[in-house]
Specification:
The complex is a heterodimer of chains A (372) and B (556). With 372 residues, chain A is an alpha+beta fold. Chain A is built from 7 helices and 26 strands. In chain A, α1 packs antiparallel against α2. Chain A is elongated. Chain A starts with a strand and ends with a strand. In chain B, a hairpin with a 6-residue loop joins β3 and β4. In chain B, the strands form 5 sheets. In chain B, strands 1, 2, 3, 4, 5, 6, 7, 8 and 9 form a 9-stranded mixed sheet that branches. About 11% of the residues of chain B have low confidence. Chain B has 3 domains: 190 residues, 2-Layer Sandwich (Heat Shock Protein 90), CATH 3.30.565; 120 residues, Ribosomal Protein S5, domain 2, CATH 3.30.230; 191 residues, Ribosomal Protein S8, Chain: A, domain 1 (2-Layer Sandwich). Classes of the chains: A alpha+beta (372), B alpha+beta (556). At the A-B interface, β26 of A face α12, β21 and α14 of B.
Chain lengths: 372, 556
């Protein structure tokens, strides 16, 4: 192999690859990245592949020049470090058997790599069977639901995001049992004749997809094969195992008939939540939201810490109501919601509250019960 | 005469002997008590074959004139009680006068005695048959020699344990006297070999003889009008209560209530099933206590035992809570296994700037600015912190568990345990046993924030969990709790059990990487507590290595 490529692009690709390779393992091959140089008419490409066996990534980047095609398997961490230190110019990579010679303008390295034959095979992507989903929507959907994913491994099905494709409708749902985020969009792609998809994708996979998506991506192609999902963007192919298990029926969880509706400017509410949170601790995360005519008052009191009261004006004429929420749960939503105003629908202090922006993005959260 | 026979004196004595003399160590106890009553300053105890063959106690006490020697063997004859009133004001030891009579009835006893100015004399009693008193050469004081214990009572002889075990009992008995009478010189000879020779000293030194100087030096001290206590920091706890000694007016006693008070002082500092090490010397006026409950006088009756219980619990706990209880690591106690020892040495010897020998995550090894002291996380398990006089290694889970325990306790006391309601109620299938325990504990569970509803036959739905545990799986939370209450120490109140359980669950896991902020908060929270030296289950939260320890270790 004999290639030249941009340090910046290669460094970025290695950073992404480093998030895939496991930190601790007894298999050296999977802490490595496989580099494959391919000649094309104008220059060529360099492909990075890495995997932790359950989860893998192939990233393609343009090479400035491919003089000789070839393959190298190099340690991910060492390469990342080297690329971070290098000056921002083209770098040259030549292979000599399994040894890589890296040429920088002011330095040169010899890195002992592994035999490419020892590197696990990464499945290929079958374009013909793929569903196409609008890339922009998918990125937004990931970001708008990810925060509600459970970190508790025992309720395993909740550690991923549910992805549903039904005709043109795409839905993504995440819940940790205390709250649930649901978002829907319509695909503009042609998916006629394709089977519906309902899978739980590990949040790590979704994260990686969000990371590799660029503005140039119009679509993400998606293949589901038994227990695996494969996702393809212009630059990247991700394959990942799916989470097996039963994802709860989200439609049943979103309560109907909430008689109290508030319309709140997002920034004001977000600022109020941040302010009042200052007087909570990690052990007592509870804020009382008192809603009365024309205003909402946020209040918290923590023994040995202090208390906080923040008021914000509100166009509200309904019945008075008091709710206690974990302020983090509210802030998580406000951080990603995007729209200028949000609706909050409530019933009583023991029932779920529902944040909405339009029909297609819903966030349900359960209150806390505590005397304060 | 009817058919009821009056028992002969020898039989009475044999029966009484069974109560007083269970084993050679009981003989030692009775004889040493007599010696102390006689004002001895030096007492020598000899035993052979665990005391079966020989028990001899030699003292330099007042001695007896020849004509009083036979009285020593007469039951209920004693020089120490004059009237029945005196019985309630006893502060000497062998007042019941049964001792020698009993011993004489089950073995061969020779007694030789001389007062300071009188003539020496001796007398032998074998299986209750007394010889005449003969003049004999004797030093001032008394020698009582017992041979062939239970020779005439084969039934009891069978019950004697091995020589080693009986010797241990003798040693324990002597140790108790030595500790309670540090001003008296004691010698213990076993099978002709000197085992202990203890010059007059103080209680702490004497404890050190039997429990090691390290423990003796570590003992805390508390003194009130009623008692003087030496008690070890929690990490010296043991699997039995054998190292808990109570003395009442110099006499070793056992008392369940006082033992409970002591355990109360160490509550949560010591794991369940382990016991503290403590030596409590009670000084009470004779009117406060009745020692005539049992012939061996090991059990007594206090007039107000619960007051004492509370005093002991409160005084000792106060001292324990108020002091630095981080377990000290003595250099000698560092791991001896070569690999481990090597790692420890490498770790502590590496200079600043040198790469760590242990695989420390570099990011975590950065100094922590927030506390003004350097702290780093070791293998995602421990925090190593620089402290004034050395370093401390903290078990992150144990310390956080203690913090959470106090937090739960505080919230529970204020009836302010915040609960997170669940959007997706967790359905739990329960076994019959679990179901029964749930019915028992449901109210308590609810007061902690675990709310359940029936959900068809054999199942319940968890509707809410404590907010502090909102990130935990509700199903495991409930089932683990129910299983735990099934196995819990029945003495432990369910409330305590629940608090400990929740604290353990809410605490950061061993193996979890902590951010610098989390580390700082953990240490700050711990610093704000009155007591943080052990986790909810009583395991220590930290060990300490002082600079002095390090210097000793490196032989500087």
């Amino acid at each position: 192999m004999k290639v030249k490529c941009s340090r910046g692009q290669l460094a970025e690709a290695f950073t992404i690859a480093s998030s895939v390779v496991p930190l601790r393992t007894t298999i050296p091959a999977i802490t490595s990245v496989k580099l494959t140089a391919t000649k094309e008419k104008a220059g060529g490409t360099l492909e990075l592949a890495c995997t932790d066996m359950e989860f893998g990534l192939k990233l393609t980047l343009p090479a400035t020049e491919v003089k000789e095609e070839g393959t190298l398997v190099l340690p991910a961490a060492r390469m990342s470090g080297l690329l971070r230190e290098a000056a921002d110019q083209d770098i040259g990579i030549d292979s000599d058997g399994n040894i890589a010679h890296i040429r920088l303008p002011d330095a040169s390295f010899k890195i002992v790599g592994l035999d490419p034959a020892d590197f696990p095979t990464i499945p290929t992507f079958d374009d013909r069977a793929a569903l196409k989903v609008d890339a922009g929507d998918l990125g937004t959907m990931i970001r708008k639901t990810q925060f509600a994913v459970s970190t508790e491994v025992v309720r395993y099905a909740l550690t991923g995001q549910l992805l549903e494709v039904k005709g043109k409708d795409i839905r993504m749902v995440a819940s940790d049992g205390k709250r649930l985020a649901y978002i829907k969009s319509r695909s503009s792609g042609k998916n006629e004749g394709q089977k519906d998809v309902r899978v739980i994708v590990p949040t790590k996979t979704m994260n990686l997809l969000d990371k590799v998506l660029t503005d140039e991506d119009a679509f993400v192609s998606l293949n589901v094969e038994e227990t695996q999902v494969r996702l393809k963007t212009r630059k990247a192919v991700i394959f990942s195992r799916l989470i097996e298990g039963h994802f709860p029926d989200y439609e049943a969880v979103v309560p109907a008939n909430l008689d109290k509706k508030l319309v709140i400017p997002r920034d004001l509410l977000h600022a109020a939540v941040r302010k009042v949170s200052l007087m909570t601790t990690d052990k007592t995360r509870a804020v009382k939201f008192s809603i009365s005519k024309g205003k909402m008052t946020l209040f918290t009191r923590t023994q040995d810490v202090g208390e906080a009261r923040v008021e914000l004006p509100l166009d509200y004429k309904g019945e008075e109501i008091e709710m206690v929420f974990n302020p983090d749960y509210v802030a998580d939503y406000l951080k990603v919601v995007g729209e200028e105003t949000v609706e909050l629908h409530l019933k009583d202090k023991g029932s779920a509250g529902v944040f909405r922006t339009g029909k297609d993005y819903v966030y349900v959260l359960m209150p806390l019960t505590v005397s304060m | 005469m009817g058919s009821i026979a009056v028992l002969g004196a020898d039989v009475v004595n044999k029966i009484a002997a069974g109560e007083v003399i269970e084993r050679p160590a009981s003989v030692v106890k009775e004889l040493v008590e007599n010696s102390l009553d006689a004002g001895a300053r030096e007492i020598r105890v000899d035993v052979e074959e665990g005391g079966r063959k020989l028990v001899r106690v030699t003292d330099d006490g007042g001695g007896m004139p020849p004509d009083e020697i036979p009285l020593a063997f007469a039951p209920h004859a004693t020089s120490k009680l004059a009237t029945a009133d005196d019985l309630f004001r006893v502060s000497t030891f062998g007042f019941r006068g049964e001792a020698l009579a009993s011993i004489g009835s089950v073995s061969r006893v020779r007694i030789a005695s001389r007062t300071a100015r009188g003539e020496g004399a001796e007398m032998v009693v074998e299986n209750g048959e007394a010889s005449t008193v003969r003049p004999a050469a004797a030093a001032p004081g008394t020698i009582v020699e017992m041979r062939n214990l239970f020779h005439s009572v084969p039934v009891r002889r069978k019950f004697l344990r091995s020589v080693e075990i009986e010797t241990e009992h003798v040693q324990d008995t002597v140790a108790r006297f030595a500790v309670s009478h540090p001003d008296v010189r004691f010698e213990l000879w076993v099978d002709g070999q000197q085992r202990h020779a203890l010059p007059p000293s103080d209680r702490r030194t004497r404890i050190g003889v039997f429990y090691g100087t390290e423990l003796a030096e570590a003992l805390r001290e508390a003194e009130t009008k009623q008692f003087h206590a030496f008690f070890a920091p929690p990490q010296y706890s043991r699997v039995s209560a054998k190292a808990i000694w109570f003395f009442l007016n110099g006499r070793f006693i056992r008392d369940r209530v006082l033992l409970r008070g002591l355990n109360e002082a160490y509550r949560e500092m010591i794991p369940h099933g382990r016991y503290p090490v403590a030596f409590v010397f009670l000084t009470l006026p004779a009117s406060e206590v009745d020692v005539n409950v049992h012939p061996t006088k090991v059990e007594v009756r206090f007039r107000s035992v619960w007051k004492l219980h509370d005093q002991i619990a409160a005084t000792l706990r106060g001292k324990l809570v108020g002091s630095d209880l981080a377990v000290r690591v003595a250099p000698g106690a560092l791991p001896q296994e070569p690999g481990q020892a090597r790692a420890v040495v490498d770790f502590f010897t590496r200079g600043p700037g040198e790469p760590p020998v242990l695989e420390l995550p570099t990011a975590a090894a950065r100094p922590l600015v927030t506390t003004g002291r350097r702290v780093f996380q070791l293998h995602n398990r421990y925090l190593v912190e620089e402290v004034d006089d050395g370093l401390r290694v903290i078990d992150q889970h144990a310390l956080h568990e203690r913090i959470m325990l106090e937090e739960f306790r505080k919230q529970y006391a204020a009836a302010a345990i915040a609960r997170q309601r669940l959007l997706l109620p967790a359905v739990v299938e329960l076994s019959k046993a679990q179901r029964a325990r749930l019915d028992d504990g449901r109210e308590l569970l609810e007061s902690f924030g675990i709310e359940t509803d029936d959900f068809g036959p054999g199942a319940v739905a968890v509707r809410a969990v404590p907010a502090l545990l909102a990130d935990h799986d509700p199903v495991t939370l409930l089932t683990d709790f129910l299983d735990l209450t099934g196995e819990a120490d029945p003495e432990l109140p369910l409330l305590e059990c629940a608090l400990e359980f929740l604290a353990c669950r809410a605490a950061v896991k061993f193996g979890k990487k902590l951010s610098e902020e989390e580390i700082a908060r953990l240490l700050e929270d711990a610093a704000a507590l009155d007591y943080s030296a052990s986790c909810a289950h009583g395991r220590p939260t930290a060990i300490k290595l002082t600079l002095t320890d390090l210097e000793r270790f490196f032989q500087r």
